[in-house]
Amino acid sequence: MSMCNLSSSLGSLNSFRLVSFHHSAIPKITKPSLFSLFPKVVSSMSYHKELAAAKKAASLAARLCQAILLFSLSLSLSLSLSLSLCSQAVVSFILQRELPSESFSLVAEEDSGDLRKDGAQETLARITELVNDTLTSDGTCISRVSEEDVLTAIDSGKSEGGSNGQHWVLDPIDGTKGFLRGDQYAIALALLDEGKVVLGVLACPNLPLASIGGQDQHSLHNQVGCLFSAKIGGGTDMQPLDGSSPIKVHVSAIENPEEASLFESFEAAHSKHDLSSSIAKKLGVKAPPVRIDSQAKYGALSRGDGAIYLRFPHKGYREKIWDHAAGCIVVTEAGGEVSDAAGNPLDFSKGRYLDLETGIIVTNKKLMPSLLKAVRECLDEKPSSL
């Protein structure tokens, strides 16, 4: 398929169904007032424009991913890296267009270094064309962007984040190995305000609208492509990526661990499967683990597909905030809890990395006490796992 036809393909992509499942932030400046003497109060009515912009940005990036997979468009860089760069540029452009601000700050995974190397000119030109086609595919009039514009947009993700001001947090392609296998991946976008996650969006192009537990056999079972969105105090919504009406979702209400199902990373390199197995055994979980790539696990958990998610990276690995920020609020606003292995909430205010105790555990509020107890007992029995 020629590049000149990609725009129309992007615009009509929803008729297809897939067959398989960084500059420093500038603090916000406001005029002093009496209200500045009191703690900031966040209303559930806040962040409406920001959430709408985030949903648009993540949806368009997901549409781009679907189009490239569908038509197998080749690029000289690795496919996953090229697509991540495209996705990051698209999200950056949309956020800055929808929410113009001199203090735009984006904490993201990629930078433009590879595109600035000798021999990358052809790849940069094709990425620029892909970005232009994607930006115009939603029918919004926008002037075409240049190659330098694309490089600048990608490098807007170099922010260090932190506890002051607002910072967008993006993983442009979360779960690249899942993406390359045709399995689960996600575009994960969140907003930090004064170090707190206040909204999050997960676009999951390959996640079925029906439960991945396979118990729901109605018409949704054959449809894939989910968009999860949440803002603080507003609950969690799920809708098809085609823009159909959203529905509210909630985590599982299971209280008995024996009835719970457990999610973990697909790749053993990303989490200690043996430790998760020991914890599940101590809890009495009977079902085998469901292994899924990316933050699609958070989305599936938020709608009750499973009841527990365990992540225990290998020694020396540092968790990045873009791997959890969006998923965290999607689950918590659906009634779940997310903590480290010691029961501490995740702290996204320290920069690009999470400083946490051993691992990450996710479940509903009823199961969390017994899960924390099992985790601690297993870690005490296996000190080498720390």
TrEMBL record:
It catalyses: adenosine 2',5'-bisphosphate + H2O = AMP + phosphate; adenosine 3',5'-bisphosphate + H2O = AMP + phosphate; 3'-phosphoadenylyl sulfate + H2O = adenosine 5'-phosphosulfate + phosphate. GO terms for molecular function: 3'(2'),5'-bisphosphate nucleotidase activity; metal ion binding. The keyword Magnesium applies. PROSITE patterns: IMP_1, IMP_2. GO terms for biological process: inositol phosphate metabolic process; phosphatidylinositol phosphate biosynthetic process; sulfate assimilation. The keyword Magnesium applies. It is an enzyme of class 3 (hydrolase). Gene3D superfamilies: 3.40.190.80, Fructose-1,6-Bisphosphatase, subunit A, domain 1. Its EC number is 3.1.3.7. CDD domains: PAP_phosphatase. SUPFAM superfamilies: Carbohydrate phosphatase. InterPro entries: DPNP, Inositol_monoP_metal-BS, Inositol_monoP_superfamily, Inositol_monophosphatase-like, Inositol_monophosphatase_CS. Its cofactor is Mg(2+). Signal peptide: none annotated. Belongs to the inositol monophosphatase superfamily. Converts adenosine 3'-phosphate 5'-phosphosulfate (PAPS) to adenosine 5'-phosphosulfate (APS) and 3'(2')-phosphoadenosine 5'-phosphate (PAP) to AMP. This is 3'(2'),5'-bisphosphate nucleotidase. It comes from Vitis rotundifolia (Muscadine grape).
